Amino acid sequence: xxxxxxxxxxxxxxxxxxxxxxxxxxxxxxxxxxxxxxxxxxxxxxxxxxxxxxxxxxxxxxxxxxxxxxxxxxxxxxxxxxxxxxxxxxxxxxxxxxxxxxxxxxxxxxxxxxxxxxxxxxxxxxxxxxxxxxxxxxxxxxxxxxxxxxxxxxxxxxxxxxxxxxxxxxxxxxxxxxxxxxxxxxxxxxxxxxxxxxxxxxxxxxxxxxxxxxxxxxxxxxxxxxxxxxxxxxxxxxxxxxxxxxxxxxxxxxxxxxxxxxxxxxxxxxxxxxxxxxxxxxxxxxxxxxxxxxxxxxxxxxxxxxxxxxxxxxxxxxxxxxx
Length: 323
Description:
The chain is an alpha/beta fold. The chain contains 11 helices and 12 strands.
């Protein structure tokens, strides 16, 4: 079978401002050439002969116009909402997501955010910086919470949501997963419901965790009405995408004490503007879209890339193909 590249191996380009993708590439046996670009300007000036591109934040659809030989784009990130699928299809370029490369990292991070809130670790860190020893709390409702016996509702039960569900079950929580396809019983004893039940289940949840992709259906799905339906003792955890939530409404309910707290890793605009009311929201932990960060990220992305290069060469099925 004829290879899709001009030579024996693709002209490969690795484009990321921080990740050392080339070292991971060599460690996994790649002996061909690899172009490495740390800035968008460098990338845009060197696209003419590129056949396979590994990229995430630098992507804009005009890259397709400047890379006439491009055959494969391997997204570093799991989310692919920045890519114009129609443009890929029109040019016959394959787009594969990085779905699965940070399943462990993101689900770990979601639990870390939740535990920071329930065990008041966020408050302890602030007190530590002031050398302040907090006294015992008389009101039981204001003390540290336990997870066993509480209910977690997870919106999005893919790889990340599924692993988060298993972690929550290990803590003795009741877990309800919201997903469109609910055929069959879930092997981990998770109750399955439909996204249309979100508002009703938000009123039942002790923790509402968001792990869904950003799609036209999920944009704004955690609306003002959903947030207002939550219990005053409930926590919101968002490791999905910022636009899934009505951010202004979230800031309002947090400042008004209508929910107990939030752990937020993603936002509508990033970096989060210094004027955002979320920065000063009580009992809120903010992380800089770092849930997916892991020491194994480069290794996992390159593993996907090499699988997809081989699939193109052999006429096989590409992993995580989205366009």
